[in-house]
Design goal:
21 helices, nine-stranded mixed sheet, single chain, two-stranded parallel ribbon, 559 residues, globular, alpha/beta
Length: 559
């Protein structure tokens, strides 16, 4: 285990890549790959028979040979050369659709994978092929329902009155996605980029859910994936993820993490409790004041329309949204991170110690809300309607991910009575999330819970020991690196030095939020983030048998 120390000599500035010279979307190819629709069926190998014999879909991927020596790219890597070669794969997942920038400069894999490729190429004289594979049912990698549909339009229901909801995402799962990665790596589609050299080693990278897939691909298929970096990967699926908001309280209350303070947390908690008490009291005039003060869409009428609207307002990060998991300690805008928000809250209290916490949150919140430029939406039914409605190009990715939470992971960030949640406790229980699953996809609470247990059994949760074949699993735990920021609430469900398998490698990054070190490199990056990247590089160098002090060492060390 490698822990970045809290106090140490300031590292040298991390060299910045020359974006204007090296990085351009023009050197990234956007391609598609005939991927098998169901890896768990008894059908024959789709890549050895005619397409008519097996269902496939067009899965999108991106490729660049930016870090391949050009003279070898022309004649084919592996021909009359002793140059070492490796393939890096940035794993796709939920969130915004991928585009060529994923292999240029993005939050996905820049700080770890792309920077490392640059380093290997220029300092060690290696060839590094970079790929990124889009996740099935995201972006343009939707399986087609019929041959008349265009790529990316499959299962979008905008022009259909009815569709069996279970069939809509029939082949969407992390298990299929892991097999997608393996099939992609083993295919002639990828090996053609390096002259069918099947000795090229593959290392996968990913953050958050893609980090989970990166790690699981190595764990379950060590023959295909040589090594894996799993950044901020919450592998312990859980329905009632109450520890998420418990961790948010830690961030708000401790200066040593991201600049919070006891006073900030105290005001944050009491402000939500004060609002909840007014709403529970039922005084329409007081509720009107709250709705006006916090600029609630639909005003008091909307808050009183449904009990769940009230709960949604005070038990979720709606009354005062705060993005702890994406916290950037070096951002420049007002109120853009935890420290700036907590400083503003503390200063407001200091200027008037008798001002109610609710009013302090309202004043600071209005400044944040002015930046957002919209009122606060509290209609819980609109959330259900969003996930229940026919998919559009804007909602498809979000619907795919919520479906996966219902069928595999849970991850519902509740605010229970017996928790340390900083919002109004008791106003967000897991039943509200189960209701979305049932009304949107026809999946009831019992099925959600059973699916999560199945996920834990299949992958092994924190322990990373699925099934009974312990020897195979232990092989997959070698060259498997978990990296977590201790300010990230998702770290509660990831593997670290204190929890989970002792056979994998781990890095702890003080003060870092959700896989912040994978983001584009900035000169203002915190020293711990810089050191985390360097630690990742050291681990991968070790996997590849490279002595960093001996540049241009072409000999791979044997194990």
């Amino acid at each position: 285990m490698e822990s970045i120390q809290e106090e140490r000599e300031e590292p040298k500035p991390q060299p910045q890549l020359q974006l204007e010279e090296e990085f351009s979307k023009s050197d990234v190819q956007t391609l598609t790959f005939d991927q098998r629709l169901d890896h768990f069926s008894s059908q024959i190998d789709c890549h050895q028979e005619d397409d008519d014999e097996c269902e496939t879909f067009k899965q999108r991927y991106f490729y660049t040979s930016r870090y391949v020596h050009k003279e070898e790219e022309k004649k084919g890597v592996g021909i009359n050369t002793n140059r070492n070669t490796v393939s890096f794969l940035c794993v796709g997942g939920e969130g915004p659709s991928l585009d060529p920038s994923v292999l240029v400069d993005s939050v996905h894999c820049t700080g770890d994978m792309i920077e490392l490729a640059h380093k290997l190429h220029h300092e060690q004289n290696w060839n590094v092929h970079m790929f990124s594979l889009e996740h099935r049912y995201y972006g343009e990698s939707f399986p087609k329902k019929n041959k008349s549909q265009k790529q990316g339009e499959a299962y979008l229901r905008a022009n259909e009155k009815e569709l069996d909801r279970a069939d809509e995402y029939k082949y969407l799962s992390s298990r299929q996605a892991v097999r997608d990665i393996v099939a992609f790596i083993n295919s002639s589609e990828t090996s053609q980029h390096f002259n069918n050299n099947n000795k090229v080693r593959w290392i996968t990278f990913g953050g958050s859910y893609p980090g989970m897939l990166s790690g699981w691909s190595r764990l379950l298929h060590p023959d295909a994936v040589y090594g894996a970096v799993a950044n901020s990967a919450p592998v312990q699926a859980e329905a009632d993820f109450r520890s998420y908001n418990d961790h948010v309280s830690l961030d708000l209350g401790q200066e040593s993490l991201v600049g919070g303070s006891k006073k900030c947390l105290e005001i944050f908690e009491s402000g939500h409790a004060e609002v909840a008490a007014i709403l529970e009291g039922g005084d329409v005039d007081e509720i009107n004041k709250v709705a006006s003060t916090f600029d609630v869409c639909g005003g008091a009428t909307m808050l009183l329309k449904d009990r769940k609207n009230l709960d949604f307002f005070v038990g979720y990060p709606v009354l005062f949204p705060i993005e702890v998991q994406s916290n950037d300690p070096t951002c420049d805008e007002p109120l853009c991170n935890v420290q700036k928000i907590c400083d503003a809250i503390a200063n407001e209290h200091k200027s008037d110690p008798h001002k109610p916490s609710m009013e302090i949150l309202a004043k600071i919140g209005k400044k944040k809300q002015k930046q957002a430029g919209r009122c606060k939406e509290v209609n819980f039914q609109s959330l259900i309607n969003y996930f229940s409605a026919p998919s559009t190009s804007k909602s498809a990715n979000n619907r795919s991910w919520y479906y996966q939470t219902c069928t595999e992971f849970g991850f519902y960030q509740t605010c229970e009575d017996n928790s340390n949640c900083p919002y109004a406790r008791g106003h967000h229980n897991v039943d509200m999330d189960f209701e979305i699953c049932e009304k949107s996809f026809g999946i009831d609470a019992k099925k959600v819970k059973a699916s999560i247990e199945s996920t834990l059994a299949y992958y092994g949760g924190w322990d990373l020991i699925p099934g009974d074949d312990k020897s195979a699993v232990l092989e997959g735990q070698k060259r498997l690196l978990f990296v977590n920021g201790n300010a990230d609430p998702w770290s509660e469900l990831s593997v670290n030095e204190k929890r989970g398998s002792s056979h994998v490698q781990t890095i702890n990054v003080p003060g870092a939020s959700h896989h912040f070190w994978t983001h584009p490199v900035k000169e203002s990056d915190d020293n711990h983030v810089v050191e985390a990247r360097q630690a990742i590089y050291r681990h991968v160098y070790d996997w590849l048998g490279i002595n960093e002090d001996s540049p241009r060492d072409y000999d791979l060390k044997t194990e």
